[in-house]
Amino acid sequence: MQFEGLLIGQMLRSMREAAGGEGWLGTGEDQTGSPIMEFAEQQVASLLAASGGLGLAKMVVENMAGSGPASSQPVKLTDE
């Protein structure tokens, strides 16, 4: 769960930086708001990971236990 929280936090940070520092809502942000945004990203990431996140932790555990798809088979992500 911690790994997934870190991954989600990094994704949120990357999205903010890719938006040119405009913030999540595109309203612009000054330098004084940066620590608050970082804290908010950490909290959102922790909450998402605690509620199931992206499902990566479950897939890793299943693969390590041998109950998931074999490593030679591709993982199917969509219902096609």
How would you describe what is shown here?
This protein is mainly α and 80 residues long. It is built from 3 helices and no strands. The two termini are 29 Å apart. The model has no long low-confidence stretch (mean pLDDT 75).
Q: Number of domains in the coordinates?
A: 1
Q: Give the low-pLDDT segments.
A: none
What value does the Rg take, in angstroms?
Answer: 17 Å
The main pleated sheet reads as: none
Keyword list:
mainly alpha; elongated; 3 helices; 55% helix; 80 residues; 0% strand
Protein topology:
Layout: H1 2-18, H2 34-50, H3 56-65
Nutshell version of this structure?
The protein is mainly α.
